[in-house]
Amino acid sequence: MTKEEVASILDEIGTLLEFRGENSFRCNAYRKGAQAVLQIQGNLDQIVRQDKLHGVENIGDTLREKITTLVTSGRLPFYEELRASIPEGLILMSRIPGLGPKKIIALNKDLGVNTLDELKKACEQGQVAGLKGFGDKTQKKILEGIQFLGEVGNRVRIDQALPIGLALLQQIRQMPGVVRAELGGSLRRRRETAKDIDILASSDVPGTIMQAFVTLPSVKQVIARGETKSSVVVQQFVDGDRVNLNADLRVVNESEFPFALAYFTGSKAHNIRMRSRAQDRGLKLNEYELANDSRKVKCKDENDLFAALELDYIPPEMREDTGEIDLATWDKGKSKHRIPKLIESTDIRGVFHNHTTSSDGKNTLEEMASAAKELGLEYIGIADHSKSLTIANGLSPARVAVQHKEIDKLNKKLKGIRILKGIEVDILEDGRLDFNDEVLATFDYVVASVHTLFNQPADVMTARIVRAVKHPLVTMLGHATGRLLLRREGYKVDLDKVLEAAAEAGTMIEINSQPMRLDLDWLHCKHAKALGIKLVINPDAHHVSELEYFRYGVDVARRGWLEKGDVFNTLALAEVCRALEI
């Protein structure tokens, strides 16, 4: 089993145990174990069979035994029995706003409801209102929650969630009485998807702010309203799609803001480490203060908070408890300056993976080049599909020659932008490439990608991709796992073996910045960096408006601790041409 599969099962066990009423320590142990598995570098199967899980943080004897069973047998009876003991409907109910495991268990025990339909029927008949701890108001909110569940309960991609969050943030910042306001949670950490929007504000008139918040035009449902915290459902159209998302606003006073911002940014695991560090110094850290019985530490911002704990400032994207606190730790009261200077969107000088009307793009070659120039880029690579991908109007060798002549013509015509000749060549079933070497040699660079036969066994898919990345004419691997966020899991592949092969061959790996992909993910970006692999941030643009998607890839790179020097397309045009020998 892959690391991702094992981690997914461990994480789900944590949730299932919560429904069984187990203590939070045991539930969280499985979730921490899942994160630890994802962070293991190397082949998990080999690590398990060589009994090298000993000493891995957050994987104790119990978890090690279960991981070993999963990897060696492909099954875990404990998980299967646990999964079978809890109706699927109960898990779905947890997605209803305001309905936690304890209330779900009570509903199941007292009313025998096991599905959303049964819960809806019980609410409509007034049975839920009659239960202790519920009442008419709760019953009404559950019905409203079921109605919204299809749209609200799912996670939302960052390209949909972030614009909504930023729009809300801007409105809140303009409210009279607001001193400071920032996004928190997964959006501030730039996770690939979000289940809600967290916003923090400071003000001396929280009640006024809350009234303004719950009456914003985009608010379609008020889940809860209080003096310092309110939860709503907002609805907004993003690129033509109607998006519904939970949004929480918390208001604190100005002196509490730095502590609250750090707390509500998370992640949970990072916060636990921060609190532990404070305790080691005789202090208590929470969302309101850093203090003990005799003093309170005053902080103007998060920089002051980190410094008070003898830490360098840690960018939000790095706050996942994957070693960032150790890296930020001072030595004898002085900074060691080990936190990387993370890549910025302004560091990107050009992009390589883009499509035109010659294959399945929506804009012409000249339109794509002109749009790239408008974004301030120095070069744009065109990588239309190769001949086998007929569904995407893949190019034949003859059509490639025509496109190359057009590129030469435009490069003489256009000023301030250089068009590079590329191709997204299909990796065929056995790892061969869709064009022969003679045709491939006519390109400035080659992106190799899998587009077919996603259901191959992991060992076959791995060998297929490894063969491709070792090809001397392949410049970079495109969308390494083929995943589509919230729509399709990636194909089964041992990505560690692929990365090792790429490192050996000197092949670059793409961070595909299409928000549906964001592939390579941030954890594998860290592994690629450790192996010395150059990453390339590409938008996979099929329309001029998608060229700036590279910014989402920069977010992934920052979560993976990448610096400017780790990313190939931070180089200027002349340096790129030298590297590609063109």
Task: Provide an overview of this structure.
By secondary structure, the chain is α/β, with parallel strands linked by helices. It has 5 domains: about 5-85, DNA polymerase, domain 1, CATH 1.10.150; about 90-150, Orthogonal Bundle (DNA polymerase, domain 1); about 155-250, Beta Polymerase, domain 2 (2-Layer Sandwich), CATH 3.30.460; about 255-330, DNA polymerase, thumb domain (Beta Polymerase, domain 3); about 345-580, Metal-dependent hydrolases (TIM Barrel). Helix content is about 45%, strand content about 15%. The chain has 24 helices and 16 strands. A 7-stranded parallel β-sheet has the order 10-11-12-13-14-15-16. A hairpin with a 3-residue loop joins strand 5 (about 220-225) and strand 6 (about 230-240). Helix 1 (about 5-20) packs antiparallel against helix 2 (about 25-40) and helix 20 packs parallel to helix 21. The longest helix has 18 residues, at about 135-150.
List keywords for this structure.
Beta Polymerase, domain 2, seven-stranded parallel sheet, 582 residues, DNA polymerase, domain 1, alpha/beta, 5 domains
